[in-house]
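Reopening this ticket.

The earlier resolution said the output was attached, but the attachment link was broken on my side. Pasting everything inline this time so it's all in one place.
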Amino acid sequence: MSTVQNNTISPSLLATMNPASDSGKASGTAATEDRFLKLLVAQMKNQDPLNPLDNAQVTSQMAQLSTVTGIEKLNATLAVMMSDQQGNQVLQAANLIGHGVLVPGASMALQDGKAIFGIELAEPADDVLVTVRDADGNPVQQINLGRQEAGSQPLLWDGQTRDGTQAADGIYTFEVAATRGGAASAASALSFSQVSSISTGAQGITLNLPLLGSVRIADVRQII
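Inline output:
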């Protein structure tokens, strides 16, 4: 009586179909396809004639391989696109070097009797008041901006204090208060600085600003 082989693949055959990795041989998608096809041919050669491979099973395996291959190719394409996008972002960020930007912050640098700062309003306001404070937190000036539209805008402080004297150059803080219809309205303070350089890291591309540190490009509210 002849011996009929079943569909089980011997360990030695599996070892032949899956050799040790070699840096000089194909890898990735091509290697996966090659191993699958070799394994499939081996299964068909060693199948039980009385219990052949199920066509549906073979079709399912082929579909799974196609799905894996498609995902790997998609991942490779996305990696290339992300690399290109990051390169474009670096070039765009480099163009900001030397330009002034407004970013969230509540400090301003008074230099030569002038200080640039900014405000950001979530909605139009009937009245906007900016309070400037010295290093000790004492109010030195209040700037009434009156009615303002929504959005961000740069402003200039001439260094004049409430008593009419000129404030000394240095770092000051400020706060913004806005009202609409008699009720408080959302308002934010914006600090001004010139971009000195850019950096790339785990957090993406950041702008390096003197006195303010590093900020993300997404934090820039306005370029001046």
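Reporter confirms the inline version is readable. The helical segments are 11-17, 29-45, 55-94. The chain has three helices and 13 strands.
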